[in-house]
Automatic annotation (TrEMBL):
Family stated for the protein in its record: Belongs to the AB hydrolase superfamily.
Entry protein name: Acetylesterase
Organism lineage: Bacteria, Bacillati, Actinomycetota, Actinomycetes, Micrococcales
Acetyl xylan esterase domain boundaries: 224-269
Domain of life, source organism: Bacteria
């Protein structure tokens, strides 16, 4: 009897285990060492050859599609957006995309593409831009305000996604149920919907694999983000002494972690990703991905207290009062903790908003970074 070949649990990332085993933990400030160890952040390559696939100018900004290979998994695709004609040096900002349950795309949801250019596999703007970002392309808006902005796909998203065409057994079984539901509804899902459904089931497998390797989903994403920050700081026309980052939702969590791990970040913005760990138990746990809920992370302190590891001079946290992912009591307590820890270096703002990065919130974030990195 012919044995059935067992599919890979990490399709497209079979070289991930060897990479993690060959790398030391990322070099970070001494105070941040326990965080890097808890997340299992592998040291990114010291220098990355960067390719430029295309460059185009439209409506006052120049957009370039970049790429680099990190040493495992598929190559990273990223976009650099900056004011056209401005040679710098400009303050640099890393724009970190959200989770959004959409891993088919990544950073492309933050970019307004010039005519004739679009993110591969996608013929229209990411719907998440309209649902979550007030219809605005965050990276492009930042560039119009005078920043050099790099938006990259991180581990598991967009160009860095897993190959789930032949999914592992547990994911395949779950997808059979989802397809049956679609058939009952008379729906024909798009390739993006198919992939995102599979990726949602597969995220648990990725988290298990990461834990087995001594890393985590958040730690491997932080590895990708540290590498992107090093790319940004080395780009012509970027002032490496004026670097910041910002993100919404999962991107906000990544901004907090990146700021804690890298002393190069002078200012950052966390949007719709701040509460206390205690407030998530028991009713809000299932609203969040493995980007926030890394086993053992709470042994280092609460989520707000991790900001004390960052060397940033100023940072902004934006809260949505009606955010269904966080209880208001947890957000209010986080705000109280942060004000006590940081004094005037911390700014907290509460918005009559749900889980979103509205146009008004973006205007506040852009103005804050402009003042902090001027």
């Amino acid at each position: 009897m012919k044995a059935t070949q067992r599919p890979s649990a990490i399709p497209g990332y079979e070289d991930w285990p060897g990479y993690v085993r060959s790398q030391q933990t990322a070099a970070v400030p001494e105070a941040s060492g326990p965080l890097a160890a808890a997340l299992g952040v592998p040291a990114p390559p010291p220098k990355l050859p960067v390719t430029v696939d295309w460059e185009d100018t439209h409506r006052g900004v120049t957009t370039s599609q970049l790429g680099w290979q990190l040493g495992f998994g598929p190559a990273t695709r990223a976009w650099l957006v900056k004011p056209s004609g401005d040679t710098g040096p400009l303050p640099g900002v890393l724009a970190l995309h959200c989770h959004a349950g959409n891993k088919y795309t990544g950073a492309s949801r933050l970019v307004d593409f010039p005519p004739g250019r679009c993110e591969p596999r996608v013929s229209a703007p990411d719907p998440g831009r309209h649902d979550l970002y007030g219809g605005l392309a965050l990276a492009t808006e930042l560039a119009r305000d005078g920043f050099a902005v790099l938006a990259h796909d991180t581990f598991g998203w967009g160009s860095r996604r897993f190959n789930l065409g032949d999914p592992p057994w547990r994911t395949a079984a779950a997808m059979e149920g989802r397809r049956a539901q679609w058939r009952e509804e008379g729906r024909q899902p798009s390739p993006a919907e198919e992939y995102n459904a599979a990726a949602a089931f597969h995220e648990e497998t990725v988290a298990k694999a990461a834990g087995l390797l001594g890393t985590s989903l958040a730690g491997t994403a932080a590895h990708d983000d540290l590498a992107a920050l090093s790319v940004l700081s080395a780009l012509p026309g970027v002032d490496p002494e004026r670097l910041g980052c910002l993100g919404f939702s999962g991107g906000g969590g990544r901004a907090l972690v990146l700021s804690a791990l890298s002393p190069a970040i002078r200012s950052y913005v966390v949007t719709a990703m701040m509460t206390t760990f205690e407030s998530l138990v028991p009713a809000y746990l299932d609203a969040h991905s493995w980007l926030l809920q890394t086993p053992g992370l709470s042994l280092l302190g609460d989520w707000p207290s991790l900001t004390a590891l960052a060397g940033a001079e100023k940072f902004l946290v934006q809260y949505g009062i009606d955010d269904p992912l966080f209880p208001e009591t947890g957000m209010r307590e986080a705000d109280r903790i942060l004000a006590g820890l940081h004094g005037g270096a911390y700014t907290g703002s509460f918005w009559p908003a749900g889980h979103e990065f509205s146009a008004g919130m973006q205007r506040e974030a852009l103005a804050f970074l402009a003042g902090a990195l001027a």
